[in-house]
Amino acid sequence: MNAPLLVTKRMTEYPGDSHTIDRYEATGGYVQAKRAITMTRDDLVEEVKASGLLGRGGAAFSAGLKWSFLAPARPSYLIVNADESEPGTFKDRQLLERDPHQMIEGIIITAIANEVRQAFIYIRGEYAKPARRVQAAVDEAYGRGYLGHGIFGSNQDLDLTIHLGAGAYICGEETALINSLEGLRGEPRLKPPYFPAAIGLYMKPTIVNNVETISNLPHILEMGATAYAGLTDSADTGTFLMSLSGHVNKPGNYELPHGITWRDLIYETGGGIREGKDLKAWIPGGASAPWFIPEKHLDLEITKDATAAAGSMLGSGAVIVMDEGTCMIRAAERIVRFFSHESCGQCTPCREGTTWMEMTLRRIEQGQGRDVDLALLIDVSDGISIGLAWPPKMTTICPLGPSAVSPIIALRDFFREEVEEHVTGGGCPFG
Amino acid sequence: MSIWSEETQERARAIVARYPQRRSAVMPLLYLAMVEEGHLSGSGMEEVARWCEITPAQVLAVASFYTMFKRERTGRYLISCCTSISCMLLGGDGVLEAVEDAAGVPQGETDEDGLVSVEHVECIGACGGAPAVQVNYELIEGVTPEKARELVGWLKAARPEVVNTDEMQQLFGGERSFEWAIAEEVGAVGPYPALQALGTIGSEAGA
C-alpha cells in the first residue's frame, strides 16, 4: 500500500488552503496546463492512452480511447460530470471542495486535447458548498487569465460554465446529462447513434469525463505516462479514490493503489467492523454493483478485472460495508427503492419493474411475504436484465434498471435462507 | 412585460448569455423563479418559458422531472434527511422520525407557519459522515436523533436569515466524511442551493 498520493496530496499537506489558486501555484499548479498548450492533440491523446487512465465515474473506460473517438466536426464541447449521486459515493465532493484548481487544470488539458472552446461543469444541485468552492476557483482562474480569451497569453480561448443539477441521479448518465444541459428532461439517449463523442451536446462532438478522471491529468503530464502506469504492479494503473462507508470504524475517502485486497481495505484502511462485529456483506462499487461476501471475496484483489471475474464491478469506487446485524432484505429494499425513485420512466422494464421489486421487498420485510416472492423478484429482475447476469444483458436504454437487480442477485445467491426466514417467520428476524 | 424584479431580470440576462443556446438556461432560470416566489408557480414557469423561447409545457416537463424544483409551497427551511443505504445503516431512519416529530409534520409536508418543510431524500453524497441532513442544501453530517430535534428547535426559535453549514455542523453534527478546515461566512437564504451566480447566497455578516 505504498503508492504516493496524487489527487489528494495537496489537500493532505495543506488542509487549510489547498483550494486557493495561490497554494495551487505554489505547489506546481498550472505548469502542465501551460505545457499542454505547446502539445498537439495527438500527443496528448497518446499520452493519456499510454497512462492507462480509466474513467472514474463508474464505467471504467479508457479515458484516452474516449478522447480518440472524438468526431472531427466543430465546435466540440467538454462536460465535467460532477453529478456524483451513486449511493455510497462522496469522493468527487472532496476533490471539488478541497482542490478545485486541480480539476480546472485537468479541464484545460482536456480542452486543448479535444479542441474545446466551451466547457461545462455539471454539479449536482445538492452540492451547494462544493459548487461555491468551484465557482470561487473558476473566478480566480479567469482573474489570472487561465480561462477566458487567450489563456496563458496564447491564442487559445476557453470558457468554463458551472451548471447546477436539480436532484436527478440519472443525469450522471452521460447522455441524460447532455439532455439536461440542453434544457430537456434528463432522459438518457439511445446509443447508437447518440455516442457523445460523435453526437453529443447540441448534436456536436462532446467529451464527458468524471471529476476524478480529470483531476488525474495534471499528474499524468507531470510524471509522464510510463511512470504513472508504473505506480502499481496491477493491470489497473495509477491510484483510485475509494469512498468507504457503512459499518466500518474509519469511513472516509482513501486514495489507494490498485491491487490491494478487500481484506486490506476493510480491516486495515477502514479499521475493521464497528463494535468488533463480523462482516456480513459489502457492496464493492456503489449501489449499482452486485454484492460481495467474506466467505468468497475477501482476499480478491481490488482491480477492474478481478472484480468483474467475480461478477461485480468497482464502479465509482464506493464501498458500503454491512455487519452481521444487518437485514439483507432491508438493505436490498433501500437500494431498490433508490433506483425505483430515480428511474426516468422511459423504459417499461425499469419503470414498472423497479416499482414492483420495491413493493415486493417491502412486503417481505414487513412480514407479508409469500413463498413465491423470491421467484417473483427474480422473474421481474429477469425482465429488466436477462438472466441476471453481470455485466447485464439490458432490456433498457441505460444501465439504471439493471443496476436495481444487483441486490436481487445477492439474495438469490447468498441470502436465500434469510428471505425464507422472513416469509415463514412472518417478519424481520432483525427487529 | 416580465413579472420579475429588475435585479432578477439582470441575473436572467447574464445566465442566458452563458449558454450557446437559450434553452440550456432553463434550469438556472427555474432556480431564479424559486428565489422570486419561494417556490415555482405557474406564472414563474411561464416567465422562464419566455426567457428560453420555449412553451410553458416544455418548462413544466423539465420542472417536474427534478426533485429540487418545488412546485408547491415550501417552508423557509427545507430539512432533507437522507435515508439511502449508508445513512440507513447508521440510523438515518431514526433521524428522519425525530425531525418529523419535532417539526410536527410528516415527510413531504410543510408546517402551518410555512417555516419548516421535511423531506426524506436519496443519497446526498455524505456517506462517510452518515447519517446526514441538509437544511436548504447546507450539509450537516453525523447527526443523531437528539441533535436532529435540537436542530429543528433552533430553526424554529432562532429563525436564522442565513443557514451556514459550518455553524450547523458545529452545533448539531458529529463525524464528517472528511475534514474541512475551509470555513465559510456565507449560506442559504431559502429552500434552494446557495450560489452567487443564482443570487441565492447570503452572507452571515450581513444577516
Query: Measured on Cα atoms, how large is the radius of gyration of chain A?
Result: 22 Å
Sequence of strands across the biggest β-sheet of chain B: 2-3-1-4-5
CATH T-level topology of the largest domain in chain A: Rossmann fold
CATH first level of the largest domain in chain A: which class? Alpha Beta
Helices of chain B, by number, come to 8
Into which percent range does the helicity of residues of chain B fall? 25-40%
Main beta sheet of chain A, described? Answer: 4 strands, parallel
Q: What does it look like?
A:
- With 431 residues, chain A is an alpha/beta fold.
- Helix content of chain A is 43%, strand content 12%.
- In chain A, the strands form two sheets. In chain A, strands 3-2-1-4 form a four-stranded parallel β-sheet, with helices on both faces.
- The two termini of chain A are 40 Å apart.
- The relative contact order of chain A is 0.12.
- Chain B has eight helices and seven strands, in the order ααααβααββββααββ.
- Chain B has helices spanning 6-17, 26-37, 42-52, 56-63, 85-89, 92-103, 145-158, 165-172, and strands at 77-82, 109-110, 116-121, 132-135, 138-141, 186-188, 201-203.
- By secondary structure, chain B is of the alpha+beta class.
- Chain B folds into two domains: 6-63, NADH-quinone oxidoreductase subunit E (Arc Repressor Mutant, subunit A); 77-201, Glutaredoxin, CATH 3.40.30.
- In chain B, the strands form two sheets. Chain B has a five-stranded mixed β-sheet. In chain B, strands 6-7 form a two-stranded antiparallel sheet.
- Helix content of chain B is 40%, strand content 14%.
- The chains are: A alpha/beta (431), B alpha+beta (207).
- The interface between A and B is large, with 65 and 61 residues.
